[in-house]
Amino acid sequence: MGMKQMNLTLHAKEQRKQPDCAVLFPGAEKRRLENEKKEKKLAKEQRKAAKANKKALKQQLEEQWKEVCHVYDAAVAAWEIECLQLKGIETVMKDLPKKPKQALKKSLVEKETAGESNEEESESSDDD
């Protein structure tokens, strides 16, 4: 290792050890970085609010999904009864109605996100 590289390494180690409030800026002016602490605190509060909002949205989607599942279960029960009745009168299997399809949770999430983007667009157009 050359002397220049050793000096750079030593300088980097010394700079890392300085506390945030004692950092010297170009021109040898001293400034305190208290504003940075406030920004970090504000960012933390914003993340906390975003997390709570996301949790509420997830809870709402979960309730909607349970409702969709109950509707599907009722439709399947009605389909089974109908199939039993048709089998009782000796209907051919290929003529029986098809089983109702389960909605995907993915489609429910896509509808919700599409609704949010439409609301944001309408709010921004109202501001104009």
Can you characterise this structure?
This protein is mainly alpha-helical and 128 residues long. Helices cover 73% and strands 3% of the residues. Strands 1-2 form a two-stranded antiparallel sheet. It is elongated.
Outline of the structure:
The protein has 128 residues and is mostly helical.
Give the distance, in angstroms, between the N- and C-terminal Cα atoms: 63 Å
- Which word captures the global form? elongated
Q: C-alpha Rg, in Å?
A: 32 Å
Reported for the largest beta sheet, the result is: 2 strands, antiparallel
Give the class from helix and strand content and strand pairing: mainly alpha
Number of strands: 2
Order of strands across the main sheet: 1-2
Rounded average pLDDT: 82
Low-confidence stretches: none
N-to-C order of helices and strands: HEEHH
Q: Roughly what percent helix?
A: over 70%
Biased composition (Acidic residues): 117-128
Coiled coil: 28-67
Region (Disordered): 95-128
Keywords: Coiled coil
Keywords:
BZIP domain-containing protein; coiled coil; 128 residues; mainly alpha
Task: Explain the layout of strands and helices.
Layout: H1 3-17, E1 24-25, E2 29-30, H2 34-88, H3 105-127
Antiparallel strand pairs: 1-2
Biased composition (Acidic residues): 117-128
Organism: Psilocybe cyanescens
Keywords: Coiled coil
